[in-house]
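Quick start: what a row looks like.
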Amino acid sequence: MDGSMAAGHDIECDLLVVGGGINGVGIARDAAGRGLCVVLCEKDDLASHTSSASSKLIHGGLRYLEYYEFALVRKALIEREVLLRSAPHIMRPLRFVMPHREGLRPAWMIRAGLYLYDLLARREILPGSKGVNLRCHPAGRPLKPEFKRGFVYSDGWVDDARLVVLNAMDACRKGAAIRTRTACTALRRESGSWLATLRDSDGGEQVVKARCVVNAAGPWTMDLLGMALPERESRPLRLVKGSHIVVPRLFEHDHAYIFQHPDGRIVFSIPYEHDYTLIGTTDLDYKGDPDQVAIDAGEVDYLCRLAGEYFAQPIAPSDVVWTYSGVRPLLEDPSRSAKALTRDYRFSVDDNGAPLVNIFGGKITTFRKLSEEAVDLVCKALGSPLPRWTEKACLPGGDLYGDTPQNCAVKRYGEWEQKIREMYPWLPPMLAARYCRAYGTRIHTLLDGRASLPELGGEFAPGLYMAEIAYLRRYEWAVTAEDILWRRTKLGLHTPPDTAARLDAWLAANALSAPASV
């Protein structure tokens, strides 16, 4: 097919979603669950850009209170517990320590802010905030001695890339077609529908005829909008780069830190992958190619220096073992700096013919609500009002204690994991813990009746067995070593440097003929 779309169409659907980040897969899942026929295309791998480059937090956004973003914080705080219930394997509660630093925000202001943070939304899972004496609290030991007082509050941790994949899996299970490594190269209205040309990584093309299109392309939102409606004046979108560094573990306890800085920014320091500490993020305006975003030396130095102002142990750029960067597509506001831009979302709907719903902004914590509201708009535009459903549904693997999300699944995760260890006593403890956290109840599909370690098919690299590679290829759209080592897992941090090259060679030599299924 030549891409002109004059030859008709190959696929018909109610909804075409462009973008395989968290918003795109969330919308595809919600829409498919309401009975719409859905196709999603993503030009790269799922979560290969912004959605795998977050701070890995499910949080209300304590610092947004300073910018009077009360509605956003309340919405995020409500969603925080909804998400924790829906996927207690890839999410968990996390306590944060904020050391009080003289000369910055006064203690009374911090306490008032935390009090408001606790009250803005009902909490059933997470404990409230409190003051803490760092001289006798375990979180005070790694800090410099001048930090004697602090505050502790609750938020949540999430494996962001797996959150994307699980939404895609649920969408697929409900009938959506998920097309990874498939770009939308042309999009135009014709006879009351959209005709979209989709081109896969081998150059093959298909034309999709869709009643509605959702533009969830993240940093490429304006590019797709310009393709669809070249005559329309663009809505401003501001790209902001956020970068993180990973260093060897700086502390032994299980709390995270939130550090203030005189420039008004805050930086998190979070336990990461057992042996490491994650530090981030930066907020810098970005004008380059979103495909080529990367941390620069100034950002590395900034994060090391800021963390070093709090930790007794010096942190140097030479300590950094891994970095990642992402571009957040935020709503433009010329009066605000990059760090002060709202993380809330907005929609625009062009219904001059077949409807086009464009997504602007957003944050990972509010993706489910964004998706729900976006599909409401789609249903309204299509004249098919269909009931909401995702608030009371588990994500794949999250049904630890039944199909309905429950507080007990979060609070009793350890009990569930212990039962799994007893069910598979031959699994090494660290491997069992990782499988439980990554796959939840789908560990049974991964292990598929196996009864001994050799039956996992051999250890390709430390902690990576052939059975897991097969599972990720079959069920989770994994194609490359990067997909497996850095997005579906974080084994890239724990395996030898040559693992990626060897794995890519093996994957190329053992091509998967069948498409991913759930």
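That is the whole record. Residues 308 and 314 are 5 Å apart (CA to CA). The chain is about 30% helix and 25% strand.
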